[in-house]
Structures are given as structure tokens and as C-alpha cells.
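A.,

Following up on our hallway conversation. C-alpha cells first:
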């Protein structure tokens, strides 16, 4: 995604945030893309009982927005919040869309980003149905161990669909093996 990153660097402005800063509120239309230069963020939703569940985590070098909202102009179902203090490159969605109209490489990178998101959500859905919480946690450990250390336990537990106590038991059990 070289064209996308190049465009974000060219068109973007620097923004520093603190931890737990809201970048997008569910119900609002996403207007910006963020390139995380340092720090991490997460997309999450709040269910009818007020419980937060993360749908995806983003770290250095990754691009984040509520892509569905940004592209359709419809309100986002998700909140976007920083988990750590972040250094971001921020680009207005309208500027990216305008550039993409005349830049085939950028169009291809945006398409690839959307495909990655779609695949991530399909895998998340399939895993939630087919795998146990222990299996889901082990899969994350195998692919993202260093990143997991940066995610608070209660947020990771909700992502896996278990309580923080249950996740602690899973971790303790796996360490004993």
C-alpha cells in the first residue's frame, strides 16, 4: 500500500493525542483517515446493554477509519478511540477520494485495504462461531504476541467474547502447559 501511505504523508497533517481519545463517535459520519505513526487505536461497538466489544485493533503503520462510513457517507456503527498516546497522520476523506479518482495506484491500495477489512471481519465472524475462546486467544498469540501485551486485559477479553476473569484463567492454563 505504498500509494496510500505516500498520499497520507503528502496530504496529512500531524496530530498527537492522548490515550483514550475519541476520534469517531458511533452515529457520526467518518470524515477522516488516520495513519498511526506511533501508538494504537481500536474500533468498537457498544451493545444494547452498554458492553463494549472491539472489532479490530490498529498499530504503527496501519490506516484506520470506519471505512464503511467514510465511503458511503452513512453514520458509523463503530467508535474509534486511541488506546495509547498516538502520533497520527490525519487526512480528510474528501481529499483521499479526490486523489483516488486520478491515481490508479491509490485506487488499488484503497481497494486492497477494503479487502483486508472484509477478510478480517469474515475471519472474526467465522472464528467466533467455530473456535473456543482458548483457540481464538492462541491464534492471536501465534500471530500478534507483542501487540497483545499493549491491549488491556478487559478489552482483549471482550474482543474474545469472554470475561476478564475467564481470560485470566485461559492465560494461566496455557502458561502451565
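Then the amino acids I'd put at each of the 177 positions:
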Amino acid at each position: 500500500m505504498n500509494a496510500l501511505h505516500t498520499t497520507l504523508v503528502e496530504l496529512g497533517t500531524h496530530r498527537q493525542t492522548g490515550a483514550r481519545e475519541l476520534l469517531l463517535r458511533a452515529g457520526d459520519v467518518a470524515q477522516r483517515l488516520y495513519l498511526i505513526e506511533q501508538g494504537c487505536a481500536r474500533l468498537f461497538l457498544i451493545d444494547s446493554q452498554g458492553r463494549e466489544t472491539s472489532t479490530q485493533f490498529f498499530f504503527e503503520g496501519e490506516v484506520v477509519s470506519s471505512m464503511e462510513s467514510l465511503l458511503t457517507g452513512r453514520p458509523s456503527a463503530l467508535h474509534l478511540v486511541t488506546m495509547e498516546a498516538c502520533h497520527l497522520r490525519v487526512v480528510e476523506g474528501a481529499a483521499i477520494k479526490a486523489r483516488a479518482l486520478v491515481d490508479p495506484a491509490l485506487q488499488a491500495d484503497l481497494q486492497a485495504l477494503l479487502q483486508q477489512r472484509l477478510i478480517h471481519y469474515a475471519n472474526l465472524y467465522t472464528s467466533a462461531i467455530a473456535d473456543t475462546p482458548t483457540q481464538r486467544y492462541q491464534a492471536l498469540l501465534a500471530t500478534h504476541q507483542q501487540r497483545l501485551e499493549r491491549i488491556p486485559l478487559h478489552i482483549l477479553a471482550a474482543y474474545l467474547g469472554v470475561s476478564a476473569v475467564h481470560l485470566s484463567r485461559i492465560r494461566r492454563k496455557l502458561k502451565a502447559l
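The chain has two domains: 2-130, 132-177. Curious whether your intuition agrees with the design.

B.
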